Amino acid sequence: MNAQNVRAMNLSLATGVLMLVAKWIAFGLTGSSVIFSDAAESVVHIVAVWFAWYALRVGAKPPDADHPYGHDKVSFLSAGIEGGLICIAAIVIIISAVQKLIIGVELQKLEIGMSITAGAAIVNLALGLYLLRTGRRNRSLVIEANGRHVMTDVWTSAGAVVGLFVAQWSGLLWLDPVIAILFGANIIREGGNLVMISVRGLMDTADPVLLTNTQKILDDYCTVHGCTSHRLRLRTSGNMVHIDYHLLVPDDMRMQDAHELATVLEDKIKTSFDCDAEVFTHLESFSQPEGHV
User: Fold this and answer.
1) Which tens digit of pLDDT belongs to each residue from 93-139?
2) For 164-210, how does the pLDDT look when each residue is reduced to its tens digit (9 = 90+)?
3) Is 291 within the bounds of a domain?
């Protein structure tokens, strides 16, 4: 298990709990719909971080008899659940804001509430940038998805402060729930993006960039060594990339030479990725029937 990923997730969980307490205090003091949206999103964040924390540990388990390809795909499941929870929180925020528009808006102690919310936004900004950087560096979808969620929280908090300032300055208190509705719509968009990432990963949707780069390595290598390739397939599974292809060699090439040729090519492909890669080569001769697998 990557120590940096574990440290990042532990920090996210601890910070999330502190931010949750601060935001609910701010909401209790002000009664603001915008701050409520921020606080409600933090509740979802805690649940999502806990699941991501669990998924990180499951995904680090080595392959076993029941999971011969490992447990990496749990990261896509984690991202999907986090995205779904974000969307649920956004719906709750929008419903609450609409109710405030109907029954009327009452705000109080805005200065204290805005100060607490602004402080939470600054803390979450630092945390979110750290999580995104760590997730991308270690190719961890779990950490990166968590970082995106935290950054959504940052924009919600920042918008809450700006919205409350404008509402207080102008006296147009109805701006508070209206801005909360806009934030809810943006949160739904972010949650939907995470759900789509999850669906693409679980459905083994090919990454066109990785596929193109791998095909170029195959073509260049085959041109130099007088062989060809076809049936390249590639899929990502959390921190692991799985590649398989058919390598066609001259009919008179010794098996030992063909195996060595394939081994060198596999190593070249593995080193081209900035994450763990598993490469399988199926050897064929030039005279092999095209439809034979």
Assistant:
1) 788 778 777 877 666 677 787 888 888 889 989 998 999 988 888 77
2) 777 777 777 777 778 778 878 877 887 888 788 888 877 777 778 88
3) no
Does the pLDDT value for residue 240 go beyond 90?
no
DSSP string, 55-100: HHHHHTSPP-SS-TT-STTHHHHHHHHHHHHHHHHHHHHHHHHHHH
DSSP notation for 233-268: EEEEETTEEEEEEEEEE-TTS-HHHHHHHHHHHHHH
The answer to whether the beta carbons of residues 7 and 144 sit under 8 Å apart is no
Q: What is the pLDDT of residue 149?
A: 76
Q: Domain range holding 58? A: 3-202
- Asked whether residue 290 is domain-assigned, the answer is no
CA angle 87, 125, 37 (to 5 degrees): 35
- The reply to whether 88 and 190 lie within a common domain is yes
Dig out the tokens for 24 from the structure.
């609910």
Mean pLDDT taken over the chain: 81
Q: For residues 58 and 227, what is the distance between their CA atoms, to the nearest angstrom?
A: 41
The model's pTM: 0.63
Q: Which of residues 179, 202, 225 is at a domain's end?
A: 202
Based on the fold, state whether residues 49 and 180 are members of the same structural domain.
Answer: yes
The CA distances from residue 184 to 87, 154, 160, 293, in Å, are 8, 13, 12, 51
CATH of the domain at 143: 1.20.1510.10
| Domain end call among 150, 184, 202 | 202
What distance in Å separates the CA atoms of residue 69 and residue 237, rounded to the nearest whole number? 9
Can you give the pLDDT at residue 151?
84
